[in-house]
Specification:
Length: 323
């Protein structure tokens, strides 16, 4: 009996490793084929593939396979809240489906089918956000954005295609310098823009009519985690009575509740060439966070694929998504 249990344990452990590798390979493959796709969408695609190829005979075994795959995906980027949120949301859906459908074969087929639908809906999320956010971009307006956001880019490109006349002010987005990439992308679609230093946000705030930002995650109280510098931009905008709009997909809604900046996941993978370390004395430490938390009181509205939401409505939407 002991030997049988040991063999079963080894088989389970081996299958877990296979599921982790399969999920990781599928995730990387999807990202290579669809570079503009969000990491959460790639994660959902990878987990659906794990369910398709799983040799599990019971729901419990399938959930073990899925748990191993989720662990493998999260380990690829421990600081990515979007990746974790996408995995958790899909895992929760699997649990709910298993409670509703007791026949394993039928349940597995439903999961694969819904996984594909879920992934497609995630891909279409930005199109919905564009439709909701378009009405807030008026002719003659000046829009301040921070760093780079795919959904913000798509929203601005859509408004430009409708021949709306507006200009964009972009902050650098250090330490990743993502604002430079965003400026090139905006110029490519024909949108007039200018770059400002991150430290000059307050100096130019009088010139702008609104702030439009993306989000790495929308947290339970309606606040957002985004590229570092978002918090100070939102505070300045609030002080000068400028509206702050957030464009974010619902798969970025996360059941976390940061109390302060220390609760924001850290990312230490910043190239030293982007931080100008050659001018810093060796004995002077450098603190260079890549993300910060913006409390809901500084956010006017959120443009999401679920509709236009106030920060206070996010907790209700999370309950609908997870429960």
């Amino acid at each position: 009996l002991f030997l049988a249990m040991s063999a079963s344990g080894r088989a389970s452990f081996s299958q877990g490793i296979i599921d982790e590798k399969l999920a990781a390979n599928e995730f990387k493959s999807w990202r290579l084929k669809h570079p503009k796709s969000a990491v959460a969408v790639a994660a959902i695609q990878a987990l659906t593939k794990v369910i398709q190829k799983s040799k599990a005979q019971t729901m419990m075994e399938l959930q073990k396979d899925l748990k191993a795959a989720v662990s493998g995906l999260k380990a690829m980027d421990k600081s990515s809240i979007t990746l974790a949120a996408g995995c958790d949301l899909f895992s929760r859906y699997v649990t709910r489906t298993s409670l509703d459908i007791h026949d394993f074969k039928t349940c597995k087929e439903r999961l694969i089918s819904r996984g594909k639908v879920f992934a497609k809906a995630s891909l279409d999320a930005r199109l919905s956000i564009v439709k909701f956010g378009d009405r807030f971009i008026q002719d003659g307006s000046t829009i301040l954005i921070h760093g780079r956001s795919r959904v913000v880019l798509q929203l601005l490109a859509h408004a430009h295609a409708k021949r709306k006349k507006f200009s964009v002010v972009i902050s650098e987005g250090r330490p990743k310098n993502s604002g430079y990439t965003m400026a090139a992308e905006l110029k490519h679609v024909g949108i007039y823009c200018k770059m400002v230093l991150d430290s000059a946000v307050a100096a130019v705030m009088d010139e702008v009519d609104m702030v439009l930002i993306g989000a790495e995650a929308v947290v339970e109280n309606g606040g957002v985690i985004n590229e570092v510098g978002t918090y100070q931009m939102a505070m300045v905008a609030s002080a000068l009575r400028k509206p702050v709009y957030v464009a974010a997909e619902s798969y970025k809604f996360s059941r976390i509740f940061p109390l302060n900046q220390k609760d924001v996941p850290k990312d230490d993978l910043i190239e030293t060439s982007k931080l100008a370390l050659d001018t810093l004395p060796i004995d002077v430490p450098l603190d260079s966070p890549t993300s910060d938390y913006t409390p809901p009181k500084y956010i006017t509205l959120l443009f999401t694929d679920l509709g236009i939401l106030t920060p206070s409505a996010i907790s209700d939407e999370l309950i609908k998504l997870y429960y």
